[in-house]
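ugh ok fine here u go
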Amino acid sequence: QVQLVESGGGLVQAGGSLRLSCAASGRALSSYTMGWFRQAPGKEREFVAAISRYSGTIRYADSAKGRFTISRDNARNTVYLQMNSLKPEDTAVYYCAAGPLIGTTAPAYDYWGQGTHVTVSS
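structure:
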């Protein structure tokens, strides 16, 4: 079992950048594929990015391609989401998740953090 804690959210102006972190404790991070999802008010949770156990496979949602970069440091048990060129529509609660296989849907992941808020002002 693994526990996940996100950090790095906040308020940023459109065009700005944020780096989210997801720190894992319990079982080693390298045991899991990791994903980032987000949920905006009144909307369903949606996939943002995912990275396989040793970074060999990476997936992005179309909305994230070219602007967001997912990475991981298994030695530090941490996953990152670098978000550049942020837009107001990126405003959401961002969640990291851990699972056995890389996937783009929430049911593919077994463990979830509590989320970190990202607000992008126009």
